[in-house]
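Appendix B. Raw example, untouched.
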Amino acid sequence: MKNKPRYLSKSRFRTSLECATKLYYSGKKEYSDQKNANDFLRELAKGGIQIGEYAKYFFSDDPQGITVNTKPYEYEESIKQTKERLAKPGDVVIAEAAFLHNNCYVRADILQRKNGVLYLYEVKAKSWSSDTEFTKKNGSPSLSWAAYLYDVAFQKWVIENSTDQHVKAHLMLVNKDAVCDTPGLAKHFKIVSDEAGQVAVVLTPGLTRKQLGNKLLVEINVDDQCDWIYTNPIETDLVTSYSFENYIQFVSEKYANDKKIVTPIGTKCKGCEFYTIVQDDALGKRSGRKECWVGGGAVTDAQFNESLVIELWGGKSGNNSPIENLLEANKFLLKDAERSDFDNKLISEVDELKPHHRREIQITKIKTNDTTPYIEVDGLKSVLDSFTYPLHFIDFETSAMPLPWYEGLKPYEGVAFQFSHHMMHEDGSIEHKSQYLNFEPGEFPNFEFVRELKKALGEKGTIFRYHNHENTYLRFIQKQLMNDAKVADRDELIGFIDTITQWKMNDGGKEYTAMGERNMVDLYDIVLKYYYSPHAKGSNSLKHILPAAIHDFPILKEKYSRAIYGKNLSVKSLNYESKIWISETHQYDPYKTLEPVFENYDAETIDKLVEDLEGLADGGSAMMAYNMLQFSEIPADQRHRIKDAMLRYCELDTMAMVMLLEGLQFAATKK
C-alpha cells in the first residue's frame, strides 16, 4: 500500500507555531491526544463548518457547484480539479481549491478570480467588530489574531508560488455588529454526522442567498499584515531564528521525513494535548508530554510522575507568569520551587489568601508531602457569618453561536436556556427548589428565563454563583431587555437584574464596581481567598474542587454516600427518585456518577472541546445538547433522553455548590 504523502497543511503549520514538536505527535494513533474527540460534537460547540458553508452563498447560489468535493487525502485529484477550473476563461469561484508547493499543501476556503485577479478568502468563525485591531503599534500581529494571520499568510505564499500569480488575501469573519433578520437562520445549515463520524452540513433544499437576509460576515484585506509576516523573523522558541520562508522549509522537511523537532519545554506544555490519562495508560498509549520532559532531560522517568511546575496555579498573575519564571530558573519540579522565584515582594497576607500566598502554600505542601487542606479560618468564618438564609445556589447553561438561532440577534449573542436552583435553609435542610429548561426550536428563552429565575429566588436570602458566568449573562440579558420595548414587564426584569448583579461604572474617569443589594456571592472567590486543597492540583474549577472537598471534609462523604437524596427523601431532588452521590466505585467524584449527555463522551472530554470559547467554563455538554436540539428532526425519544441528562447535569452543578459550602462551614468550626 502506498504511503500517504506527509504534506505541511495549513492546520499543521498552525500547530508548528504553537509548538513545533507537536508535529511529530499529531495524527499518530500511538500517542494519546486529549483533544482528538468527535468532530460532530466540536462543530456543535463552535459552528465553524456552518460558517464555511454560509460564506459560499455570498459568492454563488450553488455552493456545491463551486466546491472541490474530494476527500482530505485525495491530494492529486483535488489539485487536478482546481487546475481544470482555473483553466476556464473569465471569472471563477472555487471553494476548497487545492494547491501544492515544495511539500506544502493548502485547501483555500474560497478562491475567486475576478477581472484576472486572484482573491483569497480564509473563512473563520472568529468574531470581528468595528473596533477590532489585528496588529500592534509596530505592525506585528496582535496575540489574539496571530494564528489567523499566519494561517492566511501561509496560504497566500503557497498559492502565489504554485501559480506565479499575485493574490489579494482576506480574512472573512463573523461580524458581531450585524443583526440577523432571518428566523431560524442556523437551521438552514444543519450539522450532521455519518456512521464513520464524518461531519457535514445539510443545506435546506433550494436555499438561495436572498433567503439568508442580512450578511453576517465581513471581508478584511490582510495583505499588509502578510507583508509584515514575510519580511520579519518568525517568533518561535526554536534556538535558530528563521525568516518566514526558511521556517516553512525547515518544518515541512522535518514533517515530510517524520523527524521530531526538539523545542524547549515551557508554559506551552501546560496546554499540550498529548498526554495520557489512566484509560490511555491501560491501552499502552504514549505521552508526548512525557517524552518531551524526560527526553529533554528536564526530569527523570520517575520524576515525571511527581508534581511538575506546570501544575502551579497561575491565576491573577498578570503578565508575570510564575510558571515561566520557574522554568527560566531551570526548576521543573514544584518541590524545588520557592516563592522568591516568582515574587520578589514577599508580602504577608492576613485573613485571606492572596494569589502569591496561595501558590506558596501549593509549593510548601508538595515539599512536605502534606495532603491536608489549608483553611484561612478566621476570614472564612467572618464571611460565612455574613450570609442571610435561605441560601440560594444557581447555575446557568448558555449558548452563543456564530449563526444566530433567532431573528433580531447578533452573531454570538448569548442565549440562556437552563438554570438549576438549590436552597439551603437555616436549619440545614436542603432542597432542589426549582429549575428551568427551554430547548424548543424557534423559542427565544432569555426573557422567560429571567422571569422564572426571579420567581425562584424570591426576595430573601443570599444568592451564590460559581465564578462570573451568571453575572455576565444577566447583565447581557438586561441589555437585550433595554433594547426591546415590546416586553411588557421589562422594567421589572431590569430592576431585578440590577438587584442581584454587579457592574462597572465610571465616575469622572474613575472606574468602580456598583452592585445590587442582593448581589450574588461568588463561591469561586471564597475558595480562592480561604481554601486551598492539594487534591485539586492547582485547579479551581468546580468539577475539580468538589472531589477535593470530599477528600478534605469527611462530613461530605459520610452524608452523601447514603441514600438521602431523592424526590421523597430528606434532601429533595426534582430529577432523581434516589441518588447516592459519593461512592468508591466512582472515585468519590459525584460527576462520575452521571450518565453522559452524549454516548461515549464524558463531560470532561466534552469540556476540552470548548475550553477556548470565551466566557464558557464547564458547560460544554449542555451547550452542545441545546445546539443539537435546535435541529427539529431529532427523534422524540432521543430528545427526551437528552433533556433528562441536561436536567441532571445542571442539578449536580448547584448541588456541588451546596456540598462545597457545607464542607467550608464544617472547616470554619474546627479552629
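End of appendix B.
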